[in-house]
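Lecture notes, continued. The same structure-token format from the folding unit now serves as the input rather than the output. Read the line below as a description of shape only.
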């Protein structure tokens, strides 16, 4: 009898835990903003398609930098200094970029804000990887590359041939999770 009571309570605890997790998971999914339509005339690049011509000013020098086309595999991360998860992720991306060296995945950050705002943040949290800047809006390049939810941070992986390989919403917690995402077959 005591054994049956323990098993019953154990089942209740397990089912309660599963129920709580399912409720949390569904709640998290509900918190994601709905996809917004792209501005009229904008073509949104889908996974497997070539990334369109994209050249943006370097945050530090103002010189135009070409982001699209063939070259090294590129991890392009959209961020802003007002974005809490972005602020935590920048050192993670910097560590990952340093691990890659000159022949691995090239990390490129694109600040969706004014240059002054981004530079002020970089004085607090310096990073070494390439940083570009773009005015945010419904037609910015993050939308062109699939960010229809308007979420930051937003990361895309572009293959050496210039094809969009995959996209990721949210911050990476550590360099190992970045590498795992780059290496995975998940889109």
């Amino acid at each position: 009898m005591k054994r049956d009571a323990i098993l019953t309570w154990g089942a209740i605890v397990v089912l309660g835990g599963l129920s709580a997790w399912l409720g949390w998971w569904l709640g998290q999914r509900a918190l994601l903003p709905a996809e917004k339509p792209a501005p009229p005339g904008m073509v949104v690049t889908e996974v497997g398609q070539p990334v369109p011509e994209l050249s943006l000013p370097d945050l530090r020098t103002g010189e135009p930098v070409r982001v699209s086309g063939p070259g090294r595999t590129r991890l392009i991360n959209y961020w802003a200094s007002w974005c809490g998860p972005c602020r935590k992720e920048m050192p993670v991306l910097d560590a990952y970029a340093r691990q890659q060296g000159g022949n691995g995945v090239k990390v490129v950050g694109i600040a969706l804000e004014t240059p002054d705002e981004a530079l002020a943040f970089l004085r607090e949290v310096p990073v070494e990887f390439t940083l570009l800047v773009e005015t945010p809006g419904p037609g910015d390049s993050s939308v062109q590359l699939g960010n229809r939810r308007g979420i930051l941070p937003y990361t895309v992986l572009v293959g050496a041939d210039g094809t969009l390989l995959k996209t990721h919403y949210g911050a990476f917690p550590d360099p190992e999770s970045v590498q795992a995402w780059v290496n995975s077959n998940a889109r």
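Point for the exam: Helices lie at 2-31, 84-100, 115-124, 141-144, 175-183.
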